[in-house]
Amino acid sequence: MSKDLAELSLTELKKLQRKIETELQKRERTSRSQLLKSMEKLAQEAGYSLSEVLGKNEASTAVTAPKEKKAGKPARKKAVKDKKPSVIKFRNPANPDQSWTGHGRKPNWVVEHLQNDGALEALAVSNPTT
């Protein structure tokens, strides 16, 4: 714009403000979407899904906007569940740092092992640990 902001009328300033807010929202959505795609790609390259990396509950909250609280109603407290630690049941013999609990999507190294006529039992950990 060639005009100085001080020279704009109130109506013109409000119109400009709406345009700026719309553009900011658009850019935030685009930026968030690109970040999500990058994170999914990195997780996939490591043999995981994004939800496996973040944990099921965290992945869904990471990509959605927080819900607004309704006025006049107190927030409910969520029940805390005692969650047992996951037990590692399978380990990659080529890279012992890679393990799998047997729950969720199979990591790429497990899929490749099975495609090469390998048995899942061959990857089993003799003494499962957390």
Automatic annotation (TrEMBL):
InterPro entries: H-NS_C_dom (IPR027444), H-NS_C_dom_sf (IPR037150). Gene3D superfamilies: Histone-like protein H-NS, C-terminal domain (4.10.430.10). It comes from the Bacteria. Residues 58-105 are annotated as: Disordered. Residues 88-124 form the DNA-binding protein H-NS-like C-terminal domain. Residues 72-81 have a biased composition (Basic residues). One of its GO terms (molecular function) is DNA binding. Keywords: Coiled coil. The keyword Coiled coil applies. Residues 6-33 form a coiled coil. This is H-NS histone family protein.
